[in-house]
Amino acid sequence: MTAIKIDIARAEQGLDPTQNDLIERLRRAPQGAEQTLEIIRRLSMLLRPSMLDDLGLSAALGWYAKQFSRALRFA
């Protein structure tokens, strides 16, 4: 995703300023990539919370259940 953001920035620099529609889409693309990165980070943490190593299985399961319950209330 980071490489995509860099490629988008390079592509944007090489465009003709009269291509407004394409330029606008390229300007929005890094935000989409950043949002995707954030989702991946959250999913990674949910799959293997660091507290599993720090506090053990029982505490990690309790935390996970609380997060899952909270997510269901807002869904």
The percent range for strand residues is under 5%
Cα gyration radius (Å): 19 Å
Number of helices: 4
Q: Level of helix content?
A: over 70%
Determine the mean pLDDT.
84
Task: Estimate the global geometry from the Cα principal axes.
Answer: elongated
Q: Can you put this structure into words, describing what you see?
A:
With 75 residues, the chain is an all-alpha fold. The chain has one domain. The protein is 84% helix and 0% strand. It has 4 helices and no strands. The longest helix is centred in the middle third of the chain and has 28 residues. The model has no long low-confidence stretch (mean pLDDT 84).
Write the layout of secondary structure elements.
Elements: H1 2-13, H2 20-47, H3 51-55, H4 57-74
Helix pairs in contact: 1-2
Q: Could you list some keywords that capture this structure?
A:
mainly alpha, 0% strand
Summed up:
By secondary structure, the protein is mostly helical.
